[in-house]
Every structure is written in structure tokens, then in C-alpha cells.
Design a protein that fits this description.
Histone, subunit A, mainly alpha, extended, 151 residues
């Protein structure tokens, strides 16, 4: 790992805790030391998988690690049972990317400059804030609407 000490690398504790909580039964708890072991194991797994994926890319004379390299690395590391799940996740990701690209090209092909699109966006925000303030003002009593009790 270029320039980073292995101890400087970590995974977000809150994210790991959330993942653990989603997996555990409600009657089980997980202490901090156990969470740290999970984090260290995850980091080690990611480093091994990255290294093996890099090797797979080099074998294909590629400078970029592609999903196929990661899947091949998983096979090499004998994690074949992960592959169907990951292929499904990759397929879903590619689907969302196509939707995002289609949406982005819609804006690019609109014929409007980025400045005009930003101006239109700001106008929509302004109208939305105006509607929000109108709704808030009609539902929130004013000081004249509230009867004051004598002291």
C-alpha cells in the first residue's frame, strides 16, 4: 500500500455496527472488541482481494481492475459462493448507471447551457421555498392569533 501504514486504514465504525446490527438477532449484542476484529478482518480481506484483483488485471495486461478481475480473484481465493450474489449486484448497479446516464444525457442534449440549467434550478428552488413559507405561514398561528393570558 503506497504511503499508508496498515494501521492508518479503517472502515467506518458506524457503518460496520449498522451492518452487524442488521445481521444479528435482536437478543444478541456485539461488543467493541468484537467489532474491531470484524473491522480488521474486513480490511485484511479487502487488501488480499485487491492485491489478487490487481494480479488478475496484470495477467490481462490491463492497468485498470475490472469487475471480471475481482470475480476471478474471488474464484482464486475460493470464495465462489459470493459470485452469484455479486454478479446480481453488479447487474443492478449497471442498470442504475444506465438510468443515471440517460438522465444526464437528457440535460446535455437539452440545448441549454450549464448556466441556464443552474438558473432554472435556482428558480425552482425559489418557488419551492416560497410555497414552503406560504404553507408554514398558513399553518403556524401568528402572535395576534394567540390569546395571551393575563399575568
Amino acid at each position: 500500500m503506497a504511503g499508508l501504514d496498515k494501521d492508518d486504514i479503517s472502515l467506518p465504525k458506524a457503518t460496520v455496527q449498522k451492518l452487524i446490527s442488521e445481521i444479528l438477532d435482536n437478543d444478541l449484542t456485539f461488543n467493541k472488541e468484537a467489532r474491531e476484529i470484524i473491522i480488521k478482518s474486513g480490511i485484511e480481506f479487502l487488501m488480499i482481494l485487491s492485491s489478487m484483483s490487481s494480479e488478475m488485471a496484470e495477467n490481462d495486461a490491463k492497468k485498470t481492475i475490472a469487475p471480471e478481475h475481482v470475480l476471478t480473484a474471488l474464484k482464486e481465493l475460493e470464495y465462489d459462493n459470493f459470485i452469484p450474489f455479486l454478479e446480481q449486484a453488479l447487474s443492478e448497479f449497471k442498470g442504475t448507471q444506465k438510468i443515471r446516464e440517460k438522465r444526464d444525457s437528457k440535460f446535455r442534449n437539452s440545448g441549454l447551457s450549464e448556466e441556464e440549467l443552474l438558473r432554472q434550478q435556482e428558480e425552482l428552488f425559489r418557488k419551492s421555498r416560497s410555497r414552503l413559507h406560504q404553507t408554514t405561514n398558513t399553518t403556524t398561528p401568528t402572535t395576534t392569533d394567540v390569546k395571551q393570558e393575563p399575568n
